[in-house]
Amino acid sequence: MASEKASHLATDIEHVPHGRNRAAEAEPRTSTTFDDLRKVTTVDTVHNDEATKVLASYTGDEHWTPEEEKLLVRKIDRRLLPLLILTYGLQYYDKAMLSQAAIFGLRRDLSLSTGNRYSMSASIFYLGFICGATPAVIMAQRFPIERVASGIVLVWGVCLMCTAACHNFQSLYAQRFFLGLLESGVSPMFMLIVSGFYLKTEQALRMGAWYCATGYVSIFAPLINYGLGHIQGALSPWKYMYLVAGAITILWSIVILFYMPPDPIRMRGLSDRERYIAVARMRVNNAGVRNTHFKWKQAVEVLYDIRFWIVFAIAFLMMIANGPVSSFIPIIINDFGFSTLNSLLLVMPAGAIIGTVELLAPYLAYKFPGIRTYLVFACQLGTITASVLLWQLPRNGSTGAKLFACYILATFGGGYAVLMGVQTANTAGYTKKSVTASGIFLGYCLGNFVGPLLFKPADAPGYAPGWEATVITAVLAAVLALVYRFVCMWENKRRDKIGAEGFDHAYEDDLTDMKNPQFRYQL
Fold it and tell me: Less packed terminus of the chain by CB within 10 Å, N or C?
C-alpha cells in the first residue's frame, strides 16, 4: 500500500528547472544528476492547483501593467466567448425544439395529445440532466475539458438526429432522457471554464454572455424551423427539424475539439508572459484555476454549506417558470388564435427581449459591485408580473396584453445568469467548485422537470393551476435571493473581525471558501 501511494505521488509531482548551468549540462550525466536535483523546484499538483506549475517555471518580470492585462482579457474573450455562446445557443436550440415541433405534427404522430404525455416528454429530458450532470463534471475535472465537451456534443448530435426515428411516445421518452443525459454537462463545464479564466468581478458578465444565447437563439431558431416547416417530403416537417439540428451539432463538436481554450494553463496562442499574467492575476479570486484530483473533503463540505443550499433552492424555484417557457409558449400563442406558422414567428420577439435581459443583468452586476442579489430579485419581478397576467386575464380578448406577458415571462433568465456568477465567485477549492457547479444545475433540472408537469391538458387553454404555482415559486425565489444576501453579509462581517482579505496562498493551499478566513463573499 505504501509503495502504491509513493508511485501515485511520483506521477503527480512536477519538477521545474530554474537557471540550469550550461557548463554543468556539458558534464557526463552521472556527475550532474545530483546537482540537477538540487536546482529544481518541486511543485505538488496533488494538493495544490496546477497553476503553481506556471508560476514556478516563469523567470521573467513578475509585474505587469493594467494595459497589458486588459489586452490579455480581450484576447481571451475573443478566443473563448464565441465558442461558449454558440455552443450554448446550439444546446438551447436543440432543447427547445420540442415546443416548436409540437405544432408541426409531433404530438399527433407520436400520440402525445393523450393525458400528460407531452408534458412528460418535456420533463423526462431533465431527468437525464439530473443523472448526467455530476458524472460529466467529474470527467471534466479528471480529463482535458475540451475533449470531454467535444465528445459530449458529438454524441448528443447523433442522439438528436435519432429523434426522427421515434414512432411512438415511449421511444420519444427514451430519446429525450438520453439527450438530457448528454447535454447535462455543458452548463457546469462552462461555469468551471469561466471561473478559471476570469476574476470574480468579471465572471458575471461572461456568464451572461453565453447564457443570453438561450434568448437570442429564439430569434433565429423559429426562422429556420419556419423554412423547414414548409418542406413537403417523405417525412413530417418536425423530423427535418431534428435531422438538420443534429447534423449542425455534430459538425460543431469538431470546432470545439480544436479551438476551445480549456484554461489559461493550456490555452494555445499565449506567450510565456501572457500565460503567467493570465494565471497570476487569478490569485485575487482566492480560488484555484484547475486541479485534476478529486478531493472528497471538499465535496463533503458542500453538504453543510448553507449558501450553496440557498442557491440550489433559488435555481429550483425560479426554473419552475421555464416549464411553460421552453415547452408551451408556441402552443399558448397558438391558442390565442394565430396560425401554426405565425405562432412560430411570434416567438421571436420573446427571444430578443429575454436575450437582452440575460445580457443586461450580468452587465449591471459587472458595472455595479454589490447588487447581484438585488438583480436576481428584480428579474423575478418580471416573471411574477407575466405569470399573474397569464393567470388572471380573460381567455377571450386582451391578446396584446397576453403576448406581452409571454414576452417577459422568461426574465428570470437574467437572474439565473447572475446567480451562476454568484455561485462561482463565492466558491473556492477546485473540487468544491466542480461539485457546486453541478449542484446548482441539479436545482435547475428539478425545476425544469416539475414545471411542465404543472401545465396539464385538462387545464388548457387557461392553465390556471400552473400559473398559480408559477407565481408562488417565483415569489419564493425572489425572497430567497435577499436571504442569501443577508447570510453572506453576516459572514463577511464576522470574518472582518479576524483579519483583512488576502490571497497569497490561494493556489498553494487550494483552500475552500469556508476553510479560508480571508475569503470574502460577493453580494
Answer: N
Is-contact 460 335, C-beta < 8 A? yes
Grid cell locating 70:
486588459
Please list, in sequence order, all residues whose beta carbon lies within 8 angstroms of the beta carbon of residue 379, skipping any fewer than 6 positions away.
357, 361, 411, 412, 413, 414, 415, 416, 418
What are the pLDDT digits (tens) for 205-231?
888 888 898 888 888 888 888 788 778
Q: Count other C-beta atoms under 10 Å from residue 35's C-beta.
A: 13
Q: How far apart are CA 415 and CA 421, in angstroms?
A: 10
Q: What is the pTM of this model?
A: 0.77
Task: State the DSSP code for 292.
Answer: -
How far is residue 122's CA from residue 130's CA, in Å, rounded to a whole number?
A: 14
Position 233 scores a pLDDT of 81
Residue 11 has pLDDT above 50, yes or no: no
Predicted pLDDT of residue 74: 94
Question: What is residue 243's three-state secondary structure?
Answer: helix
Half-sphere exposure of 292 (CA within 13 A, CB side): 14
Would you list the domain boundaries of the chain? 2-44, 66-509
- Residue 334's H or E segment, with its range, is helix 329-335
What does residue 16 show for φ and ψ, rounded to 5 degrees?
-110, 115
Residue 285: pLDDT band (50, 70, 90) is low
Question: Are 288 and 54 in contact, with CB atoms under 8 Å apart?
Answer: no
- Architecture of domain 66-509 in CATH? Up-down Bundle (1.20)
